[in-house]
Amino acid sequence: MFANPFQKLIETQVAGIQENIQKAVQELEVATVESSVGGGVVKCTMSGVGQLTELKIDPSVVSQDDVELLEDLVAAAVRDCQAKAAALKREKIAGATPLGAMGIDLPDVF
After folding, report:
1. CA–CA gap between residue 79 and residue 74 (Å, rounded)
2. Distance between CA 24 and CA 93 in Å, rounded?
3. Which helix (DSSP H) or strand (DSSP E) does residue 45 occupy?
4. pLDDT computed for residue 105 by the predictor
5. What CA–CA distance (Å, rounded) separates 90 from 85?
6. What is the DSSP letter of 35?
7. What is the phi/psi pair of residue 52, to 5°?
């Protein structure tokens, strides 16, 4: 049977893409993003894959009257940090594929 001359080329490219994606995911696992809200009274840090690794709250905002404000600030910090982690992940994964080089935005599936 006649072998497709492009098959080997395609297999090589797919293997390279898989390797690039695996490397990007490994980089994301050690990368960090940070967020600070409320003038710096709530700060959080996440890994590039979106795992919350640190949360700092300035003691000045902790009082019986400010619990609702504190909850809002923590939620805002976490949402902001998640958005930054997702953007970093899209950037790394897109850079590991030929589609990213062509400017095609990839879905957040990794």
Report:
1. 9
2. 6
3. strand 42-47
4. 59
5. 9
6. E
7. -65, 125
Strands 42-47 and 52-57: antiparallel
| Contact present, 90 and 43 (Cβ < 8 Å) | no
DSSP 52: E
Secondary structure element (H or E) that encloses residue 6, with its range: helix 5-30
Q: Over the stretch 37-58, which tens digit does the pLDDT of each residue have? A: 889 988 989 888 888 888 888 8
For the record, the structure tokens of 57 come out as: 């709250």
Contact 18, 24 (CB under 8 A): no
What are 70-78's contacts with CB under 8 Å, separation 24+?
Answer: 70/42, 73/37, 73/38, 73/41, 73/42, 74/42, 74/44, 76/37, 76/38, 76/42, 77/35, 77/36, 77/37, 77/38, 77/42, 77/43, 77/44, 78/35, 78/44, 78/52
90-107 per-position pLDDT tens digit: 888 877 777 666 665 555
